[in-house]
Amino acid sequence: MGRRLTGYWFTAPAVALMVLILIAPVIVAGFLSLTDYSLGNESANWVGFKNYDKIINRSTYQKMFSASIIYVLVVVPASVALGLGAALLINSLKFAQDFYKTIFFLPVMAALLAMAIVWEFALHHSIGIVNEFFESGCGTIAETIFSFGWIPFVDGAETWYGRHCAAGEFPLWLRDKGYALGTICFIGIWQAFGFNMVLYLAGLTGIPRELLQAAEMDGAKSGWERFRLVIWPMLGPTTVFVVTITSIRSFQVFDTVEALTQGGPSKSTYVMMYAIYEKAIKQNLMGIGAAITIVFLAFVLIITFIQRYLVERRVHYS
Amino acid sequence: MNMSSYHYLGETWKHAILIVGSIVVILPFYIMLSYSLKSPGEIERNEGGFFGSQEMMIDERCAKLREPDQAAIDSARQRFTGLSDSEIYKALKAEIDTECSVRPIIFNYTKAFSEAPLLRYLMNGVIVTVSIFVVQVIVALPCAYALSKLRFRGREFVFGMVLFCLLIPVHAIALPLYIMLAKLGLTNTYAALVIPWTISVFGIFLMRQFFMTVPDDLIDAARMDGLGEFSIVWNVMLPTAIPALLAFAIFSVVAHWNDYFWPRIVVTGNRDLFTPPLGLREFKGDADGSFFGPMMATATIIVTPLIVAFLLAQRKFIEGITLTGMK
């Protein structure tokens, strides 16, 4: 009888929820981005592309884009490279593979908000363990080594470590606009690279041993040659996926910014998700928030389409 | 240098690099645990190693609350006959100090639960994550079954819709969702915390791929036995899907237990609905210098359940979290 109808019954709830929860909001956001809507106001004015105009031209939003883009451009390559490096190293070990794997995966499991707050402690300018560690190295052999004065033509007193040792103080990290975004990036990398490592480890097990042996017989004697000629191309699909997912996640960075810097100092960490939160939820400027949402979705779609394109071409780039 | 010692050297280098990396990765966990055990003074001065000295410390707030006033001095005069007021004050103060001394570890962990309703937050976390997962499965399983095993017009269209929706990250459309929920008067409810996550297109996709591998014979046999489609989903398909479901459960629970963004948006002010990360954030907002210990204790309590579960079932967890890798 109604096996055909059953199909509709079984998919109906999912379809309804997809429309209501995922598709309708995109349309609603697109619509609201053209108004000056705010919650509590029953009427909203049609403002055309004014919100987008603001996003493009106002310096606040230019800072927002640069913070978000810098964050992505730092966190993605760094966490992908570290993930790959860790995977290659761990994969080539004779023992303790699981030990390192477990440790590097811990940050992926822990609530980022909690760990962000702990990092804030570690980076605290007076009681933080990081600056204390740097200070304890001053005046010892560590200063000699890491101020790099031993490299010809490098003035040890002018390098980062040398200068801060001489001044007797180290950066305020999250409170210094020159360092805040970098510090937020660091926490992002710390959190993300274990995930990438695990994906790369899975990718590495997929490379047939015979292929590596064949490459070796054909003259790829050094580890680097084998990596360049076999491993890296074979990891192509993994890399495409890892880069995509890390990019999308990095665009969504919020927890660390909200808890530690609130977009400051002087908007240096004003990333897009935080901007949406601040403008729309805190200041009730729904139009602007919706416009940022649409731009945000556009970024995500672009990244995904690039991925699909690369996957479809089955790129094993060399 | 012969081959084996060359290898030995290489191996040592690899371990050296990985150990340095491990130290950086472990550092915040070490700090969190260590600070949750120490007294404020030890945190401030950075001393006492990992466990701190665990010497008795005075709970400043407790002492301040019981600060003897004139009435207390007057009523204590009988116990301390012949002493001047200031001497009685000192004696009372000493008594209070002993009453208010505690071991730092006890202080931190009891404060974590008494300063804020942490137990309530944890319970909220459990309620929200479990409800989300259960609803996700109830919605996704029949849909995945229909998409893989039933023929009906529009099936390809629905599957195309699933693939399209995979492109939309829920966090990105938080704002319109928030407005819709606010219009329905649902902000600051459990419903607001759960509703946006009830549909997991990823879950549908995953289960569909899994059901494709289940032989049709199994379903035909069940139909012969007179089972309806509904009971086929729950009594035949569900049991075969347990491994995939378990991985999906881990994926879902980890994501929502740790989520901070969405609860931050839909729960404003009403502490009764706070999830663990929100509770910790509130603690940070209120905390003054002497409360770093209890705050770290709170962080430890929030992070521990998943970390312990992970350590117990690592392979399952890594499989679950990297599920997205199958897309």
In short:
The complex is a heterodimer of chains A (318) and B (327). Chain A is mainly alpha-helical.
Describe what this molecule looks like in 3D.
The complex is a heterodimer of chains A (318) and B (327). Chain A has 318 residues and is mainly α. The radius of gyration of chain A is 25 Å and the shape is globular. Chain B folds into two domains: 104 residues, no CATH class; 210 residues, MetI-like (MetI-like fold), CATH 1.10.3720.10. Chain B is 71% helix and 1% strand. A two-stranded antiparallel sheet of chain B has the order 1-2. Chain B starts with a helix and ends in a 6-residue tail after the last helix. The chains are: A mainly alpha (318), B mainly alpha (327). At the A-B interface, helix 1, helix 3, helix 4, helix 5 and helix 9 of A face helix 1, helix 7, helix 8, helix 9 and helix 14 of B.
Secondary structure elements and their pairing?
The complex is a heterodimer of chains A (318) and B (327).
Chain A: H1 3-32, H2 50-57, H3 59-91, H4 97-109, H5 112-122, H6 129-137, H7 141-146, H8 160-167, H9 180-205, H10 209-217, H11 223-234, H12 236-251, H13 255-261, H14 272-282, H15 286-312
Chain B: H1 3-35, H2 40-45, E1 57-58, H3 60-65, H4 70-76, H5 85-99, E2 101-102, H6 104-115, H7 118-149, H8 155-165, H9 174-183, H10 190-194, H11 201-212, H12 216-224, H13 229-240, H14 242-258, H15 261-266, H16 276-286, H17 292-312, H18 314-321
Antiparallel strand pairs in B: 1-2
Helix pairs in contact in B: 6-17, 7-11, 7-14, 8-11, 12-13, 14-18, 16-17, 17-18
Estimate percent helicity of chain A: over 70%
CATH topology-level fold name of the largest domain in chain A: MetI-like fold
Secondary-structure element sequence of chain B?
HHEHHHEHHHHHHHHHHHHH
Number of helices of chain B: 18
